[in-house]
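Before relying on records like the one below, remember that each one covers exactly one chain. Contacts with other chains, cofactors or solvent are not represented anywhere in the record.
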Amino acid sequence: MSWACILLPQMALDSVLRRRADTGPLVLVDGAVNARSIVAVNARARAAGLHAGQRLTAAHALLAQFDALPYDPAAAGRWQRFLAAVAYRYSSEVSLLPHAVVLEASRSLGLFGPWPRFEARLRADFAALGFRHRIALAPTPHAAHVLAGVGDGLTARSPRQLRGVLHEVPIHKSRLPASALAALPAMGIRTLGQVLALPRAGLRRRFGDGLLQTLERLLGECPAGLELYRPPDVFDLRLELGHEVENLAALLFPLRRMSGDLAAYLAARDGGVQRFVLRLEHREGRSTEVPIGLLAPERDAGLLFESARGRLEQLQLPEAVLALRLLARDLPAFVPGGRDLFDERPARALPPGQLRERLRARLGDRAVYRLAATTDPRPERAQRVAEAGGVHHEPCPRPTWLLERPLPLRGPPPRILAGPERLETGWWDGGEARRDYYVVETSLGQRAWAYCQPGEQAGWMLHGWFA
C-alpha cells in the first residue's frame, strides 16, 4: 500500500486569508487577554519582523498597524474535516492526523494515473482552495506524515526505501512521543535512524510501550490505528466577516469562495446540489435567508456563484451583515451534461445550463421554465410547464414557436421535409381534430410546421416555426 499525506502547516491562517480581499499585515493570537502571543503571521507581517511565539505587546512595538484575530482551534478542526472531504474525491480511505490529511493512494493510481500526475491533481485542488501544503508518499500513513514534515515532495515506495529515508530524519521531526523527544537528545540520539537501531527491549524499559507502538506504526509492523473519515450528508459552511458589511458588493468575494468550497465538496461526493440557502447573519441573532433553487442538480462553481449572486443582488439589505452561512441539505445525484467533441460556440459563450440559471436568478423563477409532453396529442394541449428537476420526453419534434391559432400559409407551395404525421383525436370533448402535419421549407428558406386535410397537399395551414 501507499499512503499520501497532505500536510497543512498554515491551515488556521489560510482559512482566514482566503476569505479576505485585502492583503495587509495580519496575525493570529492566542492566550490570556493580558499575555497574548502570536500563533501565525502572514507574509506582510513577517516582512515587518513579526513571528510566531512573539508577545502581542512586542509586535505592537515593531508595527503600529496590523490586524490581530483570535486563533480558533474549533474552526481549524472544521476546515481540516472539509479538506478531508475534498480528499475523499480521490480515495475511500481518508483519515486525519495533526495538521494533515492522509489517504490511501495505491488503489487510486489506476484511475488518476501515476503518482506524479496524481500528486499534481492534489496540489492543484488544494492550491485552488487557498491552502498551502506539503505532500509526501510512503508505505504507511504515519511515515508519510513524518516525511511531509521533513520536506515537500518526498517519496518512499517500498519498506526498504522507507527505512533509508527515515534513517536521516532529525529526531525533532520524527513525531515520536513527547517524553522520548525530551530524553533522547540527552542520550546522544540525533536521528530517527539511531532510534531504530536501538534494542527494542531497552526502549520498552526506558520509555514504555508508547514509543515502540509509534515505531511499529511508522514501519507498518502493526495496524495504523486510524479512524476512516466519511464526509457528512449536509454541507454547512459559516464565514465570519472581519467587520460589519452594509454593501452587497462586499459580500461577493466571500460568496465566491463559499461557492467554490461547495463545488469541491460536491465533486468529492460525486453529487450535485439543487437547493441551498444563503443566510446573512445580523446583530442579536437576526438573519436574512436567501433561498437558491436550480432546475437540475449542478456542481459547477461558476454556476453556483452566479445563481447565488443573482438572488443576492435582488435583495435590499435590512441591516449590516456580520457573517455568511451556506447550508445545502438537498444533495441529489449528479449526471454531467453531454458535450460535443468539436464545440463551435464562441469562446466567451456561456454553457446552456449556466445561462439558464443566470436568467432565472436575474429575472425570477417563473421567467425561465421547461416544457414537457402531455398525453393529449393536440398541439395546443400537448405541452405543459414541467416541474424542476424532472425527466421529460418529447415523442415527436415540435416547433419552438407554436402559434396561438393556425394561419393560412401564403406564397408558393412549400417543400416537404418530413411527414406526414397523422393527428385524429379530440372527439370525446368537442374539440375534434383531423390533420396531417408536415415539416416544410417555405420559398424563403424558413422551416415551418404546417398541416392540411388528410389526402390533400393544398390549403396549407401554418401552426408553428422551427428555430
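The chain has three domains: 3-24+66-219, 235-330, 396-465.
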